[in-house]
Amino acid sequence: MLVSLILVSVALASANHSGEDFEGHKVFRVTVEDENHINLMHELASTSQIDFWKPDSITQVKLHSTVDFHVKAEDVGTVEDFLEQNDLYYEVLIGNLRSMMAAQFDSHGRATGHSYTKYNNWKTIEDWTQQVAAENPDLISRSVIGTTFEGRSMHLLKVGKAKPNKPAVFIDCGFHAREWISPAFCQWFVREAVRTYGQEIQMTELLDKLDFYILPVFNIDGYVYTWTKVYEPKLRGTDEIKTIPILIISSTSTFRIECGGRPALPRLELPVLAQTLTETLMLVENGASTSPCSDTYCGSTAESEKETKALVNFIRKNLSSIKAYFTIHSYSQMLLYPYSYSYKLPQNNAELNALAKAAVKELASLHGTKYTYGPGATTIYLAAGGSDDWAYDQGIKYSFTFELRDTGKYGFLLPESQIRATCEETLLAVKHIASYILGHLY
């Protein structure tokens, strides 16, 4: 879902019950057409334990939209009765969550090392960053911009031919733990940079004239959590699945709290945007919460988390050279630009709109994948604390959020068989925007 540097918290307690295997869990999509439907969704959210997929929370539900949410098996009947009794139109996107989880690894056979067409765990990605930099010293350098709450190094790859005073593009992936296709794209970008430099005209020009800062996984602790608690037992051949990434917006495990007697919950979102009390109140109005037990907790202070501080400090330090910011997410098939926390438009709205339109056309040219584009607030929903909004307000005038495949059939569980096509088409859009920036440096 939409990147939220403000909102990094999620209900893990509900996912951690021993023996829960997600058999019979469902994902619903409800169509919201009027104010009564919104009120009914609020009622449902207050009386049933549902996990919002899109939008991130009940406060972001708006007219003439759809709402995707996950329901536990024991609550499915109650939810279906409520929807039918109130004449709410709905469809079942995923009829059995456990089966869909198994289908995510549909490429058959796990590679022992790193693979660009499979989902890689953090240790594999970390080793890959070292290897790809060592093997391509004329094109890639690796640095550490900070550490996570749990002490993991945040590795950044600088991709481009070494020349002084080059403009740069910053790309981050893996903000949200459940969005595994996102880190896959950052890895794919580096692969294609190495593979096609000196062979393909456009990529060669981009790497000669631009530097690309690639943060393969921003939310490392959360990403590790989804692997160690969810998939590694499965990959070892056991049937036990103790939790699931779709129950985690993005865990950084940076702020543990007690909520009503339940087990301590990891702190998940990373506050960035709000700098004043007035801005914090605006964020709360637009989907963030001041409750530490909320999935959308806005944090104690702006930039309160180690990961956030590392990211924003690096961008601020290099602000004079960074001309574009891309943050990669899923799902929805959208290309968004500021603003998301407000309905106001950026100063260069016409330029950003035209650029996004051209980029999604380029993306669709390969596999026919259709993207929606526009300002975040009107294109998807009001969402406080977006990193693209923050980057834009720092002076980075080309700031975009990519919401990758799909539109709901798989949701956050996009199969490995779609990694290649998803990354190929996304790369076309990224290269198009980067080439445009070369001709419009500021």
From TrEMBL:
<keyword id="KW-0121">Carboxypeptidase</keyword>
<dbReference type="GO" id="GO:0006508">
    <property type="term" value="P:proteolysis"/>
</dbReference>
<dbReference type="InterPro" id="IPR000834">
    <property type="entry name" value="Peptidase_M14"/>
</dbReference>
<dbReference type="Pfam" id="PF02244">
    <property type="entry name" value="Propep_M14"/>
</dbReference>
<comment type="similarity">
    <text>Belongs to the peptidase M14 family.</text>
</comment>
<keyword id="KW-0479">Metal-binding</keyword>
<dbReference type="InterPro" id="IPR057246">
    <property type="entry name" value="CARBOXYPEPT_ZN_1"/>
</dbReference>
<keyword id="KW-0378">Hydrolase</keyword>
<dbReference type="InterPro" id="IPR036990">
    <property type="entry name" value="M14A-like_propep"/>
</dbReference>
<dbReference type="GO" id="GO:0005615">
    <property type="term" value="C:extracellular space"/>
</dbReference>
<dbReference type="Pfam" id="PF00246">
    <property type="entry name" value="Peptidase_M14"/>
</dbReference>
<dbReference type="InterPro" id="IPR003146">
    <property type="entry name" value="M14A_act_pep"/>
</dbReference>
<protein>
    <recommendedName>
        <fullName>Carboxypeptidase B</fullName>
        <ecNumber>3.4.17.2</ecNumber>
    </recommendedName>
</protein>
<keyword id="KW-0732">Signal</keyword>
<dbReference type="GO" id="GO:0008270">
    <property type="term" value="F:zinc ion binding"/>
</dbReference>
<keyword id="KW-0482">Metalloprotease</keyword>
<dbReference type="GO" id="GO:0004181">
    <property type="term" value="F:metallocarboxypeptidase activity"/>
</dbReference>
<feature type="domain" description="Peptidase M14">
    <location>
        <begin position="118"/>
        <end position="437"/>
    </location>
</feature>
<feature type="active site" description="Proton donor/acceptor">
    <location>
        <position position="403"/>
    </location>
</feature>
<keyword id="KW-1015">Disulfide bond</keyword>
<feature type="signal peptide">
    <location>
        <begin position="1"/>
        <end position="15"/>
    </location>
</feature>
<dbReference type="InterPro" id="IPR057247">
    <property type="entry name" value="CARBOXYPEPT_ZN_2"/>
</dbReference>
<keyword id="KW-0862">Zinc</keyword>
<keyword id="KW-0645">Protease</keyword>
